[in-house]
Amino acid sequence: MSFAQVEYGAKKKLTRRDIFLAKMETVVPWGRLASVVEPHYPKSGRRGRPPIGLDRMLSVTFWRWALVNARRF
Description:
The protein is mainly α. It is built from four helices and no strands. The chain has helices at residues 3-9, 16-27, 30-37, 54-72. The chain is extended and about 45 Å long.
């Protein structure tokens, strides 16, 4: 455990990032979404760079979508 993790764990006020992530967890049905995308997502077993995990890729995609739309308004 690093000093940053200990210091961050003692914080009482939630950051905007923490609030946003909590809302995303409640709004987006990650399991259902992953089950729809998973058959079309690339599998490892080919040569080259292994694909990024599906859960991580979905969360990055939604983060990017949220940031782009937040700047428009």
